[in-house]
Amino acid sequence: MTNPHFDAAAARERCRKFRRRILDISQTVGALHIAPAFSCLELVDTVYFGLMNRTGNPDTDDTFILSKGHGSLAQFVVLEELGIIPREQLENYCKPGWPLATHPDYGIPGIEASTGSLGHGLGLAVGMAYADRMDGKDRDVYLVLSDGELMEGSVWEALMVAPSFGTTRIVALVDLNDFQSLGQTSKILPNFYPMLDKIRAFGWEAVEINGHDHQAIYDAVTRRNKARPMVLLGKTTKGKGVTYMENVPVWHYRSPDPEEYKQAVKQVEES
Amino acid sequence: MRNAFANAFYELAKNDRRIYLVVADITAAAGVASFQKESPERFLNVGVAEQMMIGMSAGLALRGCIPFAYTIATFTIYRPFEQVRVDCAYQNLPVKLVGVGAGVNYSTLGGTHHAQEDVAIMSAVPNMTVLAPCDPAETTLVTRECMGVPGPVYLRLGKAGEPDLTSAADPFRFGKIRFIRRGTDICFLTYGPITKMALDVAVRLEREDKKSCGVVSVHSLKPLDEEGIRDVLSRFPVVVVMEEHAPTGGLGPRVKELAWDAGARCRLKSFSLKDEFIHVYGSHADLLKAHGLEAGIIYADVRAFAAAATH
Lengths: 271, 311
Known about the structure:
heterodimer, A: alpha/beta, Rossmann fold, 10 helices, 41% helix, B: Rossmann fold
């Protein structure tokens, strides 16, 4: 059951707060995946606040897997907002003796699969969705993948199998930012794009939209034809929200220094 | 062993809707064929896509199912190793990884189909249980016991046609070494189909050299029955490990570690596959022989070794 009262303006405000929160966390650690988190923030936010059925019942609630596990801060700040992760834990991100670190770990409240190595989430999702189908559960599995992750062959094995097995209750949102760790994907692998027809050819419903537009994400997923599993390609900007981070590879895994932090906070608050 | 597994699986799965069989375009006959016919919705062939086989199995397990992933051992664990390690072991899920034809069993298929380092690799993975029955009857028992293991299991099987070796064995106790033949002078510690060779050597040593020989099936390699092995090391003057596995990381090195730690005084010798990809084809026995594993060779070696031990 999606949230019929999803408010895109409120979502934008929330994401401004999330970016600010991630910037604050960045000042407590030497390095973090800040740009990958900023890139997928609207996708993650829309899934949690607009799309997922969340009643607190683990047997019927929809599932979320952050398959691009290095974007974990995007998920952690959302889980903190929802009261699932206590503030104290995120205050101690990557600190000895505390549970939250660079990648989501199964067993932490709100984390439904351990990710961090790319290309694992979709295979897990097919197994989960198949079991749900067999058990007659009315339940969706949402994932966020990165575009670099689509280079893993295991993703294509899962893309091949899911429609064949009738696991239609999967919505895979891809953070299509055209950047991988070492540079621009369209330059490194010129034949990687276009992606839309490749996904469709594997039997999925697929759409491409602006991945920072909450309303567009919400509309595309809620209007999906449920006869097939869905891939939503969300075109995004890596490091979105802080101009000096946008599409600059070094911010894949770097913390801003105090001066850069001030500048970033100012930009996020004025956006 | 394949059929024993298939039939034991069928008995477990036919009335337990939590159990699935996920295969990557390789299957078994006997009970698995019946299962496929009767419960096609729980027999999942993902195609030639082993990463998917393991990932999907882990996904099923995350929903409370108990999946068995089945194919040739190399493809069960090597091709999708990261799915084995991360999806199954890191998340500690009850996925049963069934590897058929382990060791050099697929003798004419070449090194691509030989799982000769699997025990070392799988034993090194945290949360993993590693089981290797010695004959069809023990395969049945071990397959049933898999169900009680809360985490992932690697079930290392032979192929077809293995003789029953355990009709006069001590009772099976999960996780404990099992004497399938009792003796006092020499004890063979072994696992898997090569147990037959150990028995042949033991019988000959007893008949021709009047050595009383015990043979033990170490069907659980992880957890290893350390207490049981220490007991063997203290009671027998000569202990011989025989395994169809690389010389690194298998039972031989583990027994030597235990012997050192326990200050064991026995003579200890191990026989394993060579640290080589051999380009020899023929029967399973031909390949084992090319690796130095042949009853006559081992008999002569152990005989000389045991004689030296008594002087």
